Amino acid sequence: MTESPAHPDLWPAPLATGAVDATVTVPGSKSVTNRALVLAALAAEPGWLRRPLRSRDTVLMADALRAMGVGIEEGVGPDGTGEAWRVIPAQLHGPATVDVGNAGTVMRFLPPVAALADGPVRFDGDPRSYERPLHGVIDALRALGARIDDNERGALPLTVHGAGALDGGPVEVDASSSSQFVSALLLSGPRFNQGVEVRHTGPTLPSLPHIRMTVEMLRAAGAQVDTPESGGEPNVWRVSPSALLGRDLVIEPDLSNAAPFLAAALITGGRVTVTDWPERTTQPGDSLREIFTAMGGRCELTEAGLTFTGTGRITGIDADLHEVGELTPVIAAVAALADSESVLRGIAHLRLHETDRLAALAKEINELGGDVTETEDGLHIRPRPLHGGVFHTYEDHRLATAAAVLGLVVDGVRVENVATTAKTLPDFPGLWTGMLGSVAGATAAPRS
Ligand SMILES: O=C(O)C1=C[C@@H](OP(=O)(O)O)[C@@H](O)[C@H](O)C1
Ligand SMILES: C=C(OP(=O)(O)O)C(=O)O
How many other C-beta atoms lie within 10 A of the C-beta of residue 139? Predict the structure, then answer.
């Protein structure tokens, strides 16, 4: 965790005056939008993304694909309702320059795409992107036939010298630091001459639902994918070479970004409905139903969406969050307000996310009077009475939304650089105050 830059913007997190009662429409999923963009760019025909997320991470992805020659037109959908992006694939070109910002999906999913371009593609990004692991993708691409100029750290910045095609074939990768290494190689796999067979060799593999998301979206685009779950070897995924279909895809709401809103119901003893909650999904955020129920609330999935109701009681949990690590910051905030201790396990890899999330959460909650200690693979949270103060966010969107959750019930929490939420959530402050301004049955942010 590097020191947060002094930021002039301190957002006074609004205090809830009573039980929250609102209906909220959260924007589209970052993980689904960025996979859909990559798959649409690699397809053999144009496709549509409807209700895409428009946030820093997805605009970076779209701009990067455009820089390589892909057409992405932003407008309304084929039926005239709602925002939709038309993606028109093209021969991928270099020279091109890609700004990855601090988006794991952009820095990991695009080097394999760049290997298919007909010239050099240079990748650069925010200072933190230099520290996030990328070696798994770089080493695997080299083994599959790509030429890459990187540095002694095996990280950004780097240049992929696209040769117009890649041999592909079998490759080993240690993806214990990020599941995105596996997803990256699979997403471009259909376009490699021999497809790709990815064998994960490391001790652990985080975020399995995100790998399932990759596999399901590849299959929906017509790819043939063999997985451990479909009777293949453990830790081996195989994608056959094939053309990809252009799809007309409606992007699901981002269920991980639903976390602070559901948490608002839990900690104020209120009720929040998140609209368009999918009946079935690979998004890790779906686990919030179980996790927040275990922490004291109850939920109901109806046609209106997912309604989560707090009971006025918040219980600590002992949970392994290895598969759903990105939910940790908001869960940690709720745990700091509970009536018993929590242990959050299996999340050592969060030290390599947007910031060192374990260090940042412990430090910032403790600055408000909390008692959080880092363990080898997670956090031990002992609830204490909290007080107001500045909550630093380290340019991490999920630290900022976690701080907003605390600020609902702790007077005087000021969130440094709340604008960092724009990585995955456009206008989080507006959505948040909209939720608080709502009365029973009102809509915080109606979907247009
Ligand atoms: O593939 C994806 O869309 C993601 C995978 C996960 O990454 P890690 O496996 O690096 O944790 C997750 O934390 C990230 O927010 C999104
Ligand atoms: C880890 C995250 O993002 P990224 O896609 O940058 O890895 C996250 O959104 O929690």
Answer: 18
